[in-house]
Amino acid sequence: MFPAILLFIIVFVTACSSTKYIADYQSIVKKVEIDSVPKEFEEEALNYIQKDIRPSSKIGINVLIYNMFNTKDGKYKTSNIKPLGTPPPILDSALVEISRNQIEKYLMSKGYFNAKVKSGIAVKDKRAEVSFKANPGTPFSVNKVEYDIPDQKIKELYLGNKDAFSHLKEGKRYDDDSLAYERDQIYQVMKQNGYFDFSRPYIKFTVDSNLNNSKANVKLIIDNPVDKPRHAQYDIGETNILIAPNADGFPDSMELNKRIYKGVRYTDLSKKFRRNPISRYNFLQEGERYDIRNESLTYDRMYELSVFKNVKIEYNRPKDSALVVNPVIQLIPQKIMSNRIEGEIPFNAGTVGFTLSNTYTNNNLFRGTEKFEFQIKGGLQSRLGQGTSIFKDIYQRDFSVSANLTVPRLMLPFISARPSRRGGMPRTIFSSSYVYGLQKNAFTRKVILTSVAYEFRESKSKIHTVTPLNFEYRFGNVLLDSLSSNGAFANNNNIVNLLLLDRKNVTFGVKYTFSLNAEKLLTNSSFIYFRGDIDLAGNLMQGLSRLFKTRVDTAGFRTIFGVQFNQYVRPEFDVRWYKSLGGDKQFVARINTGIGYAYGNSKETGIPFEKMFYAGGSSGVRAWQARTLGPGNYNRGESLVSEEVRKALFGFDQTGELHIETNFEYRYKLLNKFFGAKLKGAVFLDAGNIWNVSSGASETRFDFKKLGSQMALGAGTGFRYDVQYFVFRFDIGLKLKDPQFTGSDQWVISKFLGGGKAFRSAYDAANTPDRYRFVQYNFGIGMPF
């Protein structure tokens, strides 16, 4: 704690000392105020103050970094300036005058035609305060709207559509933005109705503010083309789809395909793409009226195929006078195949390991833009501090191989699905994988997964994924027979989840997922994000087994091919509220909950192990390592009294059937330029836990009356290094309240602040080889949520 406080003091003092680097006649702007601007325009008015005279944050860490790298001999450098941090805002009267003028013009654009703004500067000890005081006057309202549109068809089209978009209405406050919006909407309406040559300069406005009572008349003018009596409407003619031979682009000359099919001439110079998968997403159809929305839709879908690095649509006109335009869609392919090797080193105070994966991708497997991915992944985890080499104490091994094929259309049997015009590209996803896990002297786990899913977009923000076929086959072994036979963990309800691994079972089920506003997650805007999914298994198998009277095993479970099938329901919801606080500041509140409930053929055995929930980790309650929190008030030292068993189960996942978690996070910018990227900060508060609902000891089962005593609480701070395409994240979580203890002992923050060493020593002695950590470090790529 002391080093952090010392660093804060150094940062604050150094940031406040920037005045020593400037000349005697210069001053640093410490405060800027705007007074008497109408409240609804205050925030926007601040944006018209020139950036170079806006004061830095009170802590001034951006200025600190700049001062560290861009001062020499007690002065600011004038050359060889490093792009790190932000320079202090040095007072410039010319910029003050520009800001005053811009604020005044901004108020006029909002209808305050008589607005006046005055500026003031006060300087003391090289520190300046700048003020702007406005006298906006009375806002002008629109008195009357007149139209000067000689083309009668254009006029009818505008008047017939304007009620759906127009902000230009009599009696409303005059606003330049309303006129600009009106111009853009008129342009869109015309381009959607065949007016290929229509452009924004045809649209003009005149404003007469020389009326009494602060009112203005507005006239809308839509000119005709020069020397023409009206605007022309165009239809779509023959479409050419051209694919370049490679990523270098098109040759100087080329021979086009002589065949035209359904109004499309398809020429693939690369010889890599079949016609139908590409032409399916051309929405510029011969004989239809030109509509810019179909052009935009064609652009979007061609890019979403993920095989073209450049898409360009141009139009040719026939030599005759026919009102027809012929689209030419030019597609330049990108690299089809790629191979990516990734690795990571997960570690904490008690373990260290690595994972390594190799992913091969082919974006055009069957010449129809089908994306194929094949991945092999493996990892090892070893204990630290056990008096032996980490290579001799590898306690966990993981291996998986998976293959996915994504087809850019809905492959539905007996149904010919039309290409999607709404939302985004529909997809059919075939997936298959094999997962193997081994924990030394504890268990082996093997899972085979196969599924078929359909993904489609209702709109840009609403995504549906339906998995009508989900097959899972699990088999494994518990390797603790010797310990079980001598009673070391026999009949211990706290490790009932381990026994889930010691059985064969098969799952036939369906899944459904819906997400809202997923495309906004990397923005700083205000919105609600929602993701909900439900996993339902076994009902069809149960019905068929009863109908055909399939075999029932000795334990009374119905089987298929001699293996018990699972029957359960598992819904999960993730709801988040993102609130923009201006600039790079944002507040996020989140609640994530889910439950797995086994019934029917699985009532006695529970849901599969992989369907259980866990708490902790870089996207959960961050003060705990992943899979080490809960369930409920579970305490490993009290439940697993034998050190032999604890060693055998070291690192075994702590899981539950119910999960409740909530997070609060405030995000802000630390440095705008930090080695070429933004460095952002965050402070957070996390709460949550997992529980059992159908089995386990009483301290691990959910009881609403015990909810307060069973919730874990952690807080912390973090950094996000934003390099545009990736966000590298580092979070430090501190335990505040730990539910594995009882009463006031749960508030472990008091132990951290005093007596932590003795507390840890006592805990470690009773829980060997587990160790207690007040602080948890989390590394990750991407935002936590």
Automatic annotation (TrEMBL):
PANTHER family noted in UniProt: SORTING AND ASSEMBLY MACHINERY SAMM50 PROTEIN FAMILY MEMBER, TRANSLOCATION AND ASSEMBLY MODULE SUBUNIT TAMA
Top-level division of the source organism's lineage: Bacteria
Keyword Transmembrane recorded: yes
Limits of the Bacterial surface antigen (D15) domain: 561-744
Predominant cellular place of this UniProt entry's protein: membrane
InterPro entries to which the protein is assigned, alphabetical: Bac_surfAg_D15 (IPR000184), D15-like (IPR039910)
Keyword flag Membrane: yes
Pfam families for the chain: Omp85
GO cellular component: outer membrane
Protein's cellular compartments: Membrane
Record keywords: Cell outer membrane, Membrane, Signal, Transmembrane
Name of the featured protein: Outer membrane protein assembly factor BamA
